[in-house]
Each structure stands twice: as structure tokens, then as C-alpha cells.
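Lab notebook page, bench 4
Experiment: in silico fold of construct C2
Operator: M.H.
Input chain length: 407 residues
Purpose: comparison with the prior construct
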Amino acid sequence: MQRHSNLFGHIIHSLDRTGTIHSSTSGKSPPHPSLHPVLTSETLFNEPSRKDCLRLIAQLTGLPHNLFIDLYKTALLRFASLVQELPVPDNGPSEATDIFLDCTLKRTARALKLRRGYLLPPTSQPETIVQQQELWTYALFSAALLNGLGSLAIRTRVTLYTDTGKRLKNWSPLEGPIDHKAAWYDFEFLSTEDLEVIRPLDLFFAARIIPTAGLSWLADDRELLAVWLNAVRGELTGAGVLGEILQAAGATFTVQPLLSVPEPSSNVHVVDLDKTNPVTDEQEEVRPVPEVTNPFLLWLNTGLSDGSVAVNHARSLVHVIPEGVILVSPQIFKDYARTSGEPKTWNRIQRDFLRMKPHLPAADGDNFHRIERASGGHISGLLIPEPEKIFTSNIPAPNPSLRLGNG
């Protein structure tokens, strides 16, 4: 771990430089057909699909606007200024026209979406997960953003030109921001399979792109830092769950042959956010969901603690009665699924929760109880006889307007 800490500190000390590209070539015709305009990072993100991707990344992080700007958007703008619209290094005909910036943005967004199906840190208690979830999200984001930059730098030769098309010099992303005199560039692919050279270079870019506050945040958690360093270097076997997510997100175009990929960890619970097919009886037998890692329960615990989930109000989906806690169903599972951005998965989420058997079935064997309202009418819900499984702090007094029915 000391080796990681020293390396990280050296990178921050020696490379923490930033810059912005300034160009007046946007919209102009190049002096030679093969030239591409040097664009500001803001101009690069004016392209509609990149705007959409930036908006999606912001939504997936869930951070307040000012924090997203400081930690995420700053890194994205720095990244764009370095890679411009260079293509993915030429590993095959199908990749010859893929823009590195676009591929990385899409992969990063996919990784962040997949991350929502993981409870991180793995094997941790709910309180720890709530406290560290944003840090682990940032670790995944920054690793996804950096992965492949070394390959781009080594495998692409860039030549810079003035506004009139006069050749300035060769340039590499390793040098930092493009010379302000440059208005155009062209490129050619170089052939190299030297993985020992390529692997460390992604980490080289960390302090050029990731804000100092973000690097310091990552460095504060030494265990996560070790995993993050492996993820950035493409050593996915040592990157644990971050490596799993990056691989699933498509981190395969950066270094060929692909570095070793870990098998899914047996102690990490993955929530399938994309598949909405019904779970078969056989699957239900082999796929139990540990209570401490159930994402719905974690969401519910957190929402009740911070007040975002209301209790005992007329339209609440959680009520306390003398016999326990009522979860109005299926509405509360639909509410969670909608909040998670996957509204069609509510039925599977409910099944996962029921497999934990935290509820007491009704007298007729049904999972759901009929709860009578004093004002007339009724609601249907699951009865959790142990309120401490639902409330992590004070348990509210029972709702006097509700009583357990006979069904």
C-alpha cells in the first residue's frame, strides 16, 4: 500500500497542470482536406449526442450541481481538450472511424448505470454503503475516463498546424494541452504491442484530468485507492468489483490483447437493472438475496432516516401499526423502481425482498395483509413484524387510523 501511496503522491506533485484549448477554427474550412480543427472542450461538448451523454452522467451521479461541476464536469472538459476528436487507436477495420471521446463517454455512462446495480463497498454494512457510495461512484467514473489514454498517446502521432496550414510540430497528449498557436491537426496510427509501456500511462494522465479535490478524496481511502490504481492501469484482476463493472461496460477497445478479467465476485450482490424477465422457480431457489445487501431495503432505510420516505401520513407507503410495519404494496416497490430509473423492474424487486422472508404472511397464507382505515376503505401491504429491520433509528408510534384486518 505504501508503494501505491508514494506513486500517487509523485503523480500529483509532478503532473497537476491544467489548461484550456483556444481555437477560432470552429466552422472554418481546413487549409488541407486531411486536417481537423483544434476545438475548445466546450465546443466539443456542444455536439448534441455529447450533450446528452453529459446530461446522463450528471443524472447518474445524483450530485448537487456545484459538486458535479467541480468533480465530474471539470474532469470531462479536461479530458475532451486532450483527446479532441482523435479516433480510437487502429486495432481493426471496425474501429477506424470510432471517435475516442465518444467511445469513452458512452462507456463511462454505461459503467455508471451498471454501478447502480452494485452495493459498494462490497460486504459492507448499510451505514458504510450510504457513507461511501459517492466515493466509489467517483472511483468508477475516473477509472472509466482514464482507461485507454495511454494507448491513445502511444499509438497515435499527432501533427499540429497553424491557422494557415503551416506545420508547427508533432504533439502527444502526454505533453498536456495543445499549443495555443495550433489551429489544426492531423494524425496517423503507430504500431505497438508494448503493454508494459501502455499500462502505466493511463495513470500518468490522472493529475492532468482528475481535479485535485477528486484525487485527494480517492487517496483518503487506501483500500479503495489500491483497487482504483489497478482499474486505471487496466489490471482488472486486481481491480475487484470496479474491474467487473468496467469490463461489463465495454472497456475492451483500449489495449489489445485484453488484460485479464476477473470472475464476478461471490461476495458482491449485483442488482440486474436491465433484464425484466420473470424469475423462474428454479432461479428463486439458487438466487437468495442477503438482507444486508438488498438495495430496496437500503433505499428504504436511508429514506426513512433522512425523511425522504414519509411515514404514517394519509398517502404514505410506510405505516406503523401495533403488529409491526406495513409496506404498502406493490406501490412502494414501484416507487423505488421509478426512483432507480428502471420502473419496469418493480416486480422482480418485490420478489427479491420477499425471498428474504422479513414479512409475516396473512392468516390465509397470502403475503399481503388487508389494512382497514378508520375513515373507511383499506390498503394492502406487507407486514414486517420487526420494525428495527425497517427503521435504523427511532421507530414512530403506531398510526391510530389503521388496524390490521382479518384477511
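Observations: The CA atoms of residues 71 and 211 lie 6 Å apart. The two ends are 59 Å apart (CA to CA).
Next step: discuss at group meeting.
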